[in-house]
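Help!! Second protein's tokens look totally different from the first
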Amino acid sequence: MNVPFAEKLNSRISSDGSHDAGDCPWRGELRYDEPLRDHTSWRVGGPADRFYLPADRDDLILILRSLPAEEPLFWLGLGSNLLVRDGGIRGTVISTRNRLKELRHTDNGRVYAEAGVPCAHVARFYAERNLAGAEFLAGIPGTMGGALAMNAGAFGGETWNLVARVWTVDRPGAVRCREAREYRVGYRSVEGSDGEWFLACELIPGGDDVSGRERIRELLARRNATQPTHLPSCGSVFRNPPGDHAARLIESAGLKGYSLGGAQVSEKHANFIVNTGTATAAEIETLIGRVRETVLRVHGVSLETEVRIVGEKTRRTKTTP
């Protein structure tokens, strides 16, 4: 299944990620059985069969063109808004953390940000140049690639309100530029260009504003006062139902502080589940299910998860390079 690709990689890159002699076309770093708990904000998750850190955008396109069609592929940014099960992820994980990080002004006065740029860096980039409109990004603990994929938002702002156009790449490695109007965007949802992943975006500044840095400080202070930023979490677990807040429903159902093993409904914000230090992905996933069941029974509201749950519950055979 994955073996042909594994053999192809193994013939060119050694198991510690260094290159063998020869004309290896890839310049990134390849790891085997990489524990994904080291790459997720919840600090849980089993291993990835293969974990690739591309050197840059061109290297990413090259590795995509090398993947056989049957090779499972998963993209990973900062690992927030994500629960990787204890069995890990089969196939190849491509990580953009500290990769694809170009952030600059464009000739037309807009802001260009690659998919691996943390959202908070974009907020700071705007504020340092007295540009308005991106302050809310300081409250999103992820990268622009993830923010584009789910229309991430915080403090009343949403990512796609800033987007002018995006660059995407598909499985065979073809790059396209698409206008924002080509996508159907809603609350925490983005539809369009199936089979493509976001490489970069061009953002619209909202005019001159010298108070951006102060507003970011205020928003971060508000986040620290209301959210459990001192413990590992994924951010908000559930979407807010129309006309209500998931945190209110969970708290009024008596679940604030409810624990299961090392997983706990935060005592500070009920729409956060925190890892108190020993949680497993299975405990977190079970707790998510219990919260949903309880809120449905008490309030008659079916909460939808905002967090993405991926991977296998149990580990199969170990990958060998």
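Here's the second one for comparison:
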Amino acid sequence: MGVEETTGTPQSRPPEATPPSDAAGLLDHLADAGIDRLTRLAARMLAAPLAAANITDTGCVWSATQQDVDLSRMRDQPDLCDMFPHDGRRVLCDVRRHDVARCHPLVSGPPWLRFYAGAPLMMRNGAPAGVLCVFDTRPRRPSPQQLDALDDIAALMASRLELRRAVRETLAQKEDLIREVNHRVSNSLQVVSNLLTLQARSAGEVAQRSLDAAARRVSAVAYIHRRLYQGGRGGMIDFKPYVTELCEDIRRAVSADGWHHRFVVVADGAEMPTQRATAFGLILNELVTNAIKHGYPAGVPGCIAIGFHIEDGQYVLTVADDGCGLPATADPWHAKGLGMRIIRALTGQLAGTLVFGSGKGGHGTAVTVRCPAAHGGTAD
């Protein structure tokens, strides 16, 4: 039961402290129910009022088993757990007999710690991940069975840390693989879009319009996958930058065809699942294309306003132009064009509603799509 000189003084934390960052990569945070229960079990097995699980580079989780132990001073004091190397079990039956530990503020002052027992948390590769410590406010000599129990609990805690690390590594590998897949899908879809655009240049007028529209639809899906591999989390993307990028791509495409419109995009940040974002992106592409195609005579510039907001638990997408507006005889609900059929079908998948009206000041056309921000529909 030898002792060593102090090796470091990271800060300890009381039971309700905010969990520290995961510097060691072993825990997402220290608010881990399993670690807490094992820490309390260690205190009970040694009939001690206080125990701590010190995870390397992340601080301590304290667990008191008696209400008369004052932990208020522990928040800002050096960590007694880390005064000794974590290379083997250490027991101080009376901390006051240790040359360095007896000067520790928690020993020389409240709560007047007198006993220390620590078992290292050894990982499978032999590296220590921390230490499981038990304290008492009176000198004592634990039984061999109690110290064996401390070693066993420390081994269980180390196994839990090992499992958590393995899960984290597996998830990280999965995320890397998904990002690579999305990268490849995005590149492949963009190649298809470019090929359609090239073919459109040598096609007749009617075929050219159809091929250009198809190219923009493919690009709308490609941008979703680009967003996913650039930073999407768990199949979720932030719709705001996606809307901005997609509208800028459409603006460039129509400018090349001689349509010089101004696009105004006002969007809220909102993370949404991939399938829902894809549906919204395709709807947006069709609505903007329709506004350009039907709202303005050839060569006449205009302003197209795109808005995306969250209102009363609903996603609200609006595309409005200041063009000539819908003809009096127009019936968008029963339009047979491919674009309107796509809009109606995707709105139905989102369990949404589609509203046609006039633009700002009664000019032009405004189309609004609303759908539940969560649940409902089949697009998720």
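Reply: Different proteins will give different token patterns, so don't panic. The first helix runs from residue 33 to 45.
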